[in-house]
Every structure is written in structure tokens, then in C-alpha cells.
Specification:
With 260 residues, the protein is an alpha+beta fold. It has a domain at 123-254: Protein Transport Mog1p, Chain A. The protein is 43% helix and 24% strand. It has five helices and nine strands, in the order H-H-E-E-E-E-E-H-H-E-E-E-E-H. A seven-stranded antiparallel sheet has the order 3-4-5-9-8-7-6. A hairpin with a 2-residue loop joins strand 6 (199-206) and strand 7 (209-217). The N and C termini lie far apart (181 Å).
């Protein structure tokens, strides 16, 4: 019995010492000790970081910079998108305008080609024999009106389709006047206009004879071209009142013939 009592006392003493040792270890390093079974484990609270720590300040600056860059990037995208659509809209408008202009020019060119074809073949104009039988070719689409026909004066007017009323302000594709005056006298009638610069004078050959070609402004209504040449003892003035007929006028002048 004595032996059993001593053995039990040693075992109890060892347990007491073991419990004291465990409590001491838990106090010194609680993380290394497992909680007793059956006792609920308390959740550990996360350690708080001071708000004014360097890490918090750095993260706050990064957030502000990132937000600012995002706004800037968005503004740049919006501006680029606006410019793109604006340029595209202007390009499309300009393209449509160029197409319209091209179609208009093509239409005008075709219309002009039709007008030129309609003029062919040219018709022959012939003045009276006693006035030297002046002759030239003119477009068949032009009308002719003889305003005066005598030994002292001859006037004719030619114009596409119809002749306008004869007056000082009306313009015609072609005027013909045969004056019963000398070439020198008629030529000097234009001297003042030539000296003032309103008309430009050029010496040309018509039917092999020296003549003059006048270009410019003859009065406040008429700006065109005229040729003045001698026809026996008379003088001829052949003129156009508008620049749009210059091409036809040049062809008419080239076709002039008369009896010397």
C-alpha cells in the first residue's frame, strides 16, 4: 500500500507540474499552444494600420493619379472621336460637292457638244453683188435679220434662234455693217477707245488685205470683238457683242470672202 501511495503521489505531482509548465508556455507564446479541446476558439482581430502611415499616403496618391489619368484618357478619346466624325462629315460633304460639280461640268460639256453639232453644217451668208458680194459662213441655228439694204448703208444682225429688238443696249452674236465711207475714216472712229485702253488693236489679214481687229469694251453694254476692213470704196465692220460667241466669230472671220 505504501508503494502504491508513493506511485500515485509521483503521478499527481507530475501532472501538476505539467499543467504549470503548459500555463507558463501559453503565457509566454500563446500562438504555439493549441486551445483545450471543447473550448471555443475566439476569432483573432486583424491588426489595424494607422491611417497616417506612409503606405496609406502612397496608396491614396496612386488612387488620385489613376483616377486623373482615367479622366484624361476619357477626354482624349472623346476629343479624338469628335474630330474623327467631324472630319468624316466634312469629307463626305466635300465628296458630294465634288461629285455634283463633276456631274454639272459633264452635263454642261455634253450640252455644249450638242449645241456645236447642231450648228453644223454652217450656212452661207451673201451680201448683195453691188456691195462686193461679201460672203461668210455662220451656224445654221442662227437667225438673220436684214435691217437696212441700200447702196449707202447695209446692216444685218445674226443671233441664235431669234433676233432681239434692235436698240443700242441689245447684244447680238454677229453684227454686219457696210458703210459708204473710206477705210481710213472708219478706222479713226475707234482711235479714242484704243488710246484710252478700252480697246486693243491688232493688224490682221482678211481676204489677203491689211485690216484691223479690235477687242474690248465698245460701250457700256457691249464688250466683244470686231474686224474692220476695206471693201472696194466702202468699209465693213463685222463684230460680236459677247465673249461667249468668240469661237464662232473667229470661224466666221476665217471664212470671209468678197469680190475685189
Amino acid at each position: 500500500m505504501a508503494k502504491q501511495s508513493m506511485a500515485f503521489g509521483f503521478i499527481k505531482f507530475d501532472k501538476i507540474n505539467q499543467n504549470r509548465y503548459n500555463r507558463c508556455m501559453m503565457q509566454n507564446n500563446p500562438q504555439n499552444m493549441m486551445p483545450p479541446q471543447g473550448v471555443p476558439q475566439m476569432p483573432q482581430m486583424p491588426q489595424s494600420v494607422p491611417q497616417n502611415s506612409p503606405n496609406n499616403k502612397f496608396n491614396s496618391k496612386l488612387s488620385i493619379i489613376g483616377f486623373s489619368l482615367a479622366i484624361l484618357f476619357g477626354l482624349i478619346l472623346a476629343f479624338v472621336g469628335y474630330k474623327y466624325f467631324d472630319l468624316k462629315s466634312n469629307f463626305d460633304k466635300k465628296l458630294e460637292q465634288e461629285k455634283s460639280i463633276a456631274v454639272l461640268k459633264r452635263s454642261q460639256a455634253l450640252n455644249q457638244e450638242f449645241i456645236e453639232r447642231e450648228k453644223q453644217p454652217f450656212t452661207q451668208f451673201v451680201a448683195p453683188e453691188d456691195l462686193g458680194r461679201l460672203a461668210f459662213s455662220y451656224p445654221k441655228t442662227w437667225s438673220v435679220y436684214i435691217a437696212q439694204n441700200s447702196a449707202s448703208s447695209y446692216k444685218a444682225y445674226l443671233n441664235p434662234k431669234k433676233i432681239r429688238p434692235i436698240n443700242s443696249s441689245s447684244r447680238y452674236a454677229l453684227r454686219l455693217e457696210i458703210k459708204n465711207r473710206s477705210y481710213e475714216v472708219v478706222k479713226h472712229q475707234f482711235d479714242s477707245l484704243v488710246k484710252s485702253g478700252k480697246l486693243k488693236l491688232e493688224v490682221v489679214k482678211i481676204n489677203g488685205q491689211n485690216s484691223i481687229l479690235l477687242r474690248g469694251k465698245f460701250n457700256q453694254y457691249i464688250e466683244g470683238s470686231a474686224v474692220v476692213f476695206k471693201l472696194r470704196d466702202k468699209t465693213v465692220i463685222l463684230s460680236t457683242d459677247a465673249k461667249q460667241f468668240e469661237t464662232d466669230f473667229a470661224k466666221i472671220v476665217d471664212s470671209i470672202s468678197y469680190n475685189l
